[in-house]
Design brief:
The structure holds 2 protein chains of 2 kinds. By secondary structure, chain A is α+β, with helices and mostly antiparallel strands. Chain A has a single domain, classed as Alpha-D-Glucose-1,6-Bisphosphate, Chain A, domain 4 (2-Layer Sandwich), CATH 3.30.530. Chain A is built from 3 helices and 5 strands; from the N terminus they run H-E-H-E-E-E-E-H. In chain A, a hairpin with a 5-residue loop joins strand 2 and strand 3. In chain A, helix 2 crosses helix 3. The longest helix of chain A has 36 residues. Chain B is of the alpha+beta class. Chain B has one domain. Chain B is built from 4 helices and 7 strands. In chain B, the strands form 2 sheets. In chain B, strands 1-5-4-3-2 form a 5-stranded antiparallel β-sheet, with helices on one face. In chain B, strands 6-7 form a two-stranded antiparallel sheet. The chains are: A alpha+beta, B alpha+beta. Chains A and B meet through helix 3 of A and helix 3 and strand 2 of B.
Chain lengths: 139, 151
């Protein structure tokens, strides 16, 4: 009985330690003036993480992930030189058993996607700093 | 009333300006059972460098962020004399403010979610946090220090 109780407590802690902060992915990624063609950057970030990237006639950006029987749809909101990932839907498709949506899995993939966008923004800012530093050197 | 608000705003501006500069780390005894001095030093000790080119320093900081051993840090924001670096790993997030000027670079605690929320912060120095915070952020500091050594 005591062993089971200890096991249950340990299990609770281990689950808690892997739980994602709710909507940590939804914090805007600022890109300031460093990104000249945002569409190219977002496409690159999306495709590197196996997301499909699309743009509609109104200029809205969307991304979709079909992976491990999950179908996740998002819109990439652009506002004041920031990109925010907005979750539109998360469903399971073509699954035979255990078809519930694990929110931790969804949050994890969304966070990875946000990280991929932020990484490409970091590269753009780094490139700009390099150009500026070389200009300062030559002056 | 307006004079009071103006004075308050001025004080806030002065305090923000004062905080936003890297300084020599002096570890205080803030609380009982705070993290060890070596851990605090490993993250928050200032990094001296020999460049006056601020753009070059910023470039090396960003390069250090994305080449950190184990896990990359990405840009979360920037301002005059600082960049914010973010680290997301297994549901925990840490945001570090990396301040720089023509003499020093210093990492300061900015924000966190999950296990790495600092229990005691003073002027951007985190005096009590989980071991993981010091381990992961130590790698970032080391990576930036190596890059700055190339200047």
């Amino acid at each position: 009985m005591r062993k089971r109780l200890i096991l249950a407590i340990l299990l609770c802690f281990s689950i808690n330690s892997l739980a994602y902060e709710l909507d940590a992915y939804a914090k805007p990624v600022p890109y300031y003036h460093y990104v000249s063609d945002l569409s190219v950057l977002l496409k690159k970030s999306a495709e590197r993480n196996h997301w499909d990237f699309s743009k509609d006639n109104q200029g809205n950006y969307f991304s979709r992930l079909l992976y491990k029987s999950y179908d996740i749809n998002t819109q990439l909101m652009i506002n004041n030189n920031t990109v925010t990932i907005k979750l539109l839907s998360a469903n399971r498709v073509n699954c035979s058993r255990r078809c519930s949506v694990d929110q931790d899995v969804v949050q994890g993939w969304l966070l990875n996607f946000r990280r991929a966008i932020a990484f490409d923004v970091t590269l753009a800012v780094k490139k700009s700093a390099l150009i500026e530093s070389l200009q300062l050197k030559s002056d | 009333m307006q004079l009071k608000q103006l004075f308050g705003g001025l004080l806030l501006l002065i305090s923000l300006t004062a905080v936003a500069k890297p300084t020599k780390l002096i570890i205080e005894n803030m609380i009982k059972r705070q993290s060890s001095d070596s851990r605090i030093n490993s993250v928050h000790r200032e990094i001296p460098h020999y460049s006056t080119n601020l753009a070059a320093i910023k470039y090396e900081i960003l390069e250090g962020m994305i080449t950190t051993r184990g896990y990359k840090w990405v840009l979360e924001g920037e301002g005059d004399g600082f960049v914010l670096a973010r680290f997301d790993y297994r549901g925990d997030t840490t945001i570090i403010k990396i301040e720089y000027d023509t003499a020093l670079v210093q990492l300061k605690y900015h924000d966190a979610w999950g296990d790495y929320v600092c229990k005691k912060v003073s002027a951007g120095i985190c005096y009590k946090n989980a071991r993981g915070y010091y381990n992961y952020t130590k790698n970032l500091r080391k990576s930036i220090e190596q890059r700055l050594g190339m200047l």
